[in-house]
Amino acid sequence: MTRTKLLMNGRLLPQLEVALSAEYDLCPLWQQSSPDDFLKVQGHEFSGLVSSAKTGVSTALIKSLPALKVISIFGVGYDAVDVTTAHQRGIQIGYTPEVLNDCVADTAMGLLIDVARQFSASDRYLRAGQWLKAPFPLTTRVSGKRLGIVGIGRIGQTIARRASGFDMEIRYHNRRQNPNLPYAYEPSLASLAEWCDFLMVASSGGPETQHLISSDILKKLGPNSFLINISRGSVIDEQALIEALEQGVIAGAGLDVYADEPNVPERLRRLDNAVLLPHLASATRETRQAMADLVFDNLTSYFKTGRVKVAVPTAN
Ligand code: 8YV
After folding, report:
1. Domains of the chain
2. Which atom of ligand 1 is nearest to the CA of 291?
């Protein structure tokens, strides 16, 4: 029996690669000496493509696969996938929302607490023998403070529930107000930034949110407030943020994502008022396995029923 040919764009979780190669005739694109030449000759053979939020799917890749019917993405963010071109061609796109909400929200709260209470900085302080000379300086309280959430989708709401457990007052800004939520809506990002002690970026990436957090918004946030980002580096003007952190325009930042991953600017790495994580919000064994299972199930479902299990929404 001939197996369905599945093209793999970029590396995936090892156990997912094993599971996929047991089921499909899996073809890792990066193993080809010339991927472009390979696609010219064999591109028409693939009806399925698997990739990740990190590697994405370019317009050129979609165009080089004339028989493509389904894309399965490892991740919830699809800003690196040309969804418009795929949907115009009737190609279905599966992705992995929901299963990572908890771990991403846990990381968001971890960053928030770390940057306010300076756990990472105080760990460095202790290891450097500084505690022997003087106690660590006082830090900023978290419980009961004001949290402003930018983007109140599934992950934003999961963060809000955790923050409620810290007795935080919560407001949000979103493209649209969500009347089902028990939190106050701020109609502008500027007013949210002015109001809050912690500004949490939980929106999606892509052109619509590019540099939403500008130097003006950082000024509104002010010298006693903190910025946290677990969404995409593109949402923040990173140069403006570095200047704001260097000059004390804001108190600090907790970041899991950057403009040009995995390159993190030296100036940012030098700053003690920034907590910097290497894009690990969803990176627990449990959550990555759940994401891998959904990548697999989306493909199985498509090839059995003609529909992926969880599809990237079509533009409205
Ligand atoms: C991904 C992410 O797992 O889901 C997303 O959009 O950013 C992460 O959770 C990571 O980018 C691997 O593709």
Report:
1. 5-97+286-305 (3.40.50.720), 101-276 (3.40.50.720)
2. 3
